[in-house]
Predict the structure.
Amino acid sequence: MIAVLTRLSDFLPAALRPHATEARIRLLAQFGMFAMVGLIGFAIDTATVYALWGLVGLYVGGIAAYFVAATGTWFFNRLWTFRGHVSAEAWHVQWRRFLAANFAGFAVNRGVYMLLVTVSGLCGRHPEIAVFAGAVSGLSLNFNLSRKLVFR
């Protein structure tokens, strides 16, 4: 991904090329990887909402689904996005730190989800729309918190 972004930077206007530093390209590539893992998290989140919808409703199902999806995204980010950031701490300590660091993103994510399933009939019938909107709204916040506090 870094090679592709580096090659694409050659097509930037001359005034912008100096800003396409190696560090910024690496950061953009890492964000792209984090976003791709987020798509996996979206699939896990949506599947869990649908699995729990009939049992506990959209609100409780949405909260439970977030924790299932967050565990999945932590796992894949650990294996892929931040694989070079080896931690000496136990996996469960890092997992708890990931959940804690991303609590602000959780509040934004599930806040948007809850708002949409409450006020939108469409989202109430198709909660994957609310799940997606919540995920996108928390993406940048979670990336920065994960990068700075969890996978250092």
